[in-house]
Amino acid sequence: MTVLSLLPVSTERLLLRPFTPDDLDDLHAFQSLPEVARYLYRPPLTREQCAQSLTRRAAGTAWSEDGHDLVVAVCPVGEAKVVGEIVLKLASASARQVEIGWTFNPAYAGRGYATEAARAVAALAFVELDAHRLFARLDVLNTGSMRVCERLGMRREAHLVENDLDGGRWGSEYVYATLAREWKAERA
Ligand SMILES: CC(C)(COP(=O)(O)OP(=O)(O)OC[C@H]1O[C@@H](n2cnc3c(N)ncnc32)[C@H](O)[C@@H]1OP(=O)(O)O)[C@@H](O)C(=O)NCCC(=O)NCCS
């Protein structure tokens, strides 16, 4: 299937759509910031890396094998601007395990946009993509991301201790998750 055909999706305040090459300035504006990359276990992205990532996103339209992904651009309604992105990744096609992640421009933080967009993309994962389990991995120091998980009703189900190296720092992670039946029961 062409996973990009699930977009666009509208929420109360946001338009969720595929990225286009014209989004380079907006994407680079936040992906280049050290504070945004702080808990992502990689350096901030250069403009060239953002451009490559946009090319890859446009080409990646499949959703059938481990590693396939859907990257969603988030725009406030009425503003021709991308303020964040939500990524769904097919971690296991056979077990229908889907990872969700989010990255937003800090100039648009604290308005509930990340939660609103993630909620709509979680619905895509469960309703359109038939996910059995949706999970997020985040550094234990990433309290903003933790709160997004909790507002989505995800369960903290693992605490991995010093399971990765973030430069010279041992990083520890939480895994949050929710099952399709839990997500549907919550909304019934
Ligand atoms: C993680 C991240 C997306 C969270 O951003 P955020 O702005 O805290 O999240 P939201 O957009 O959902 O905003 C939620 C806040 O808006 C507030 N808010 C204000 N107006 C609101 C409204 N109308 N509706 C809902 N919430 C509103 C909420 O109370 C909440 O504040 P709180 O967390 O202090 O309780 C952001 O910090 C980020 O991009 N970080 C860098 C990348 C990253 O680390 N990603 C995660 C990797 S695992």
Any overview of this molecule?
The chain is an alpha+beta fold and 188 residues long. It has one domain (3-134): Aminopeptidase. It has 6 helices and 8 strands. It has an 8-stranded mixed sheet, sandwiched between helices. It starts with 8 loop residues before the first strand and ends with a helix. The model has no long low-confidence stretch (mean pLDDT 96). It binds coenzyme A. The site of coenzyme A (COA) has 20 residues, from β5, α4 and α5.
In short:
It is built from six helices and eight strands. With 188 residues, it is of the alpha+beta class. It binds coenzyme A.
Q: Average the pLDDT over all residues and give the rounded result.
A: 96
Domain module tally: 1
User: Given the C-alpha coordinates, what overall shape results?
Assistant: globular
The CATH class is identified as Alpha Beta
Bound molecules: coenzyme A
Low-confidence stretches: none
Class derived from helix and strand content: alpha+beta
Percent in helix = 25-40%
Q: How large a portion of the residues is in β-strands, by DSSP E?
A: 25-35%
**Given the structure, what is the number of helices?**
6
Largest sheet composition:
8 strands, mixed
**Radius of gyration computed on alpha carbons:** 16 Å
What is the CATH topology?
Aminopeptidase
CATH architecture: 3-Layer(aba) Sandwich
How are the strands of the largest sheet arranged?
1-2-3-4-5-6-8-7
